[in-house]
Design goal:
Order of helices and strands: EHEHEHEHEHEHHE
Shape: globular
Number of strands: 7
Strand content: 15-25%
CATH superfamily: NAD(P)-binding Rossmann-like Domain
CATH class: Alpha Beta
Radius of gyration: 17 Å
Distance between the termini: 40 Å
Number of helices: 7
Strand order of the largest sheet: 3-2-1-4-5-6-7
Largest sheet: 7 strands, parallel
Helix content: 40-55%
């Protein structure tokens, strides 16, 4: 593990799934970690313990990103604890099936607040407080498509895709803003059907991916300092069909 501290990375939704893996990877690469979580306190504490064993500092920050006030204060709290914060990874997300036209807009608001408004707020605060840094947004390989059973989710990821590009123009050269769009990497959660095997047979590479593929993309974006406004679609070609 590198001995030199490269800075601090705030990773949202880092108590589980890809956010957790990104936080662990960045710690191994020499970053201190500001680990955001909401309900998954046990997972956050377990990750914190593992990162501290690497010899890296890791602090936990609990916030409900669906609440605007908590999203607004999160980065200020991180900046106070870690004045050297220079990486923001917006990976927190919700993914619930639905179609347009619901009378109850609760699900729409939840997707919008967590998947788009929170990354927007955090990126704006990052750009305001950080002299030089890098934002990586987790988008989705299906953000280029229009047919879906996850209408509200997909709308927020489409917005995040365009925001990534607009923010790169707005805040360059001091702040680079890029993204990663994962395809079939992890199995669905919350009892949603796992149809990855069927779908994988229909895409150009005919197989699912794994978290290592996403971590490779994150590392490439960190190391290539002439990239901004780019979104790496890591999906085995699924978005092409």
């Amino acid at each position: 593990m590198p001995s030199k501290i490269k800075g601090t990375a705030l990773v949202t939704g880092a108590a589980k799934r890809l956010g957790n893996m990104v936080a662990m990877h960045l710690a191994k690469q020499g970053y201190q970690i500001a680990l955001h979580y909401h309900r998954s306190k046990s997972g956050a504490m377990s990750t914190q313990k593992a990162i501290c064993k690497m010899g890296r500092r890791c602090e936990l920050f609990c916030a409900d990103l669906s609440i605007e006030a908590q999203a607004l204060t999160l980065f200020a709290e991180v900046f106070k604890a870690f004045p050297n914060v220079n990486v923001l990874v917006n990976s927190a997300s919700i993914f619930i099936p639905n179609q347009f036209g619901a009378l109850d807009l609760g699900l729409f608001k939840a997707h919008w607040n967590i998947n788009f408004k929170a990354p927007y707020i955090l990126t704006c605060e990052f750009a305001r407080l950080v002299q030089k840094g890098h934002v990586i947004n987790f988008v989705d390989a299906n953000a280029v498509k229009y047919k879906t059973g996850y209408a509200d989710y997909l709308m927020t990821k489409k917005a995040l895709l365009e925001f990534t590009r607009m923010a790169a123009v707005q805040w360059g050269p001091a702040i680079r803003v890029n993204g990663v769009s994962p395809g079939m990497i992890l199995a669905p959660v919350n009892g949603q059907p796992d149809d990855r095997a069927r779908r994988a047979r229909q895409i150009p590479l005919c197989r699912t991916g794994n978290p290592r593929n996403i971590l490779q993309s994150v590392q490439f974006l960190l190391e290539n300092d002439y990239l901004t406004g780019q979104v790496i679609v890591n999906d085995g070609g699924e978005s092409l069909i």
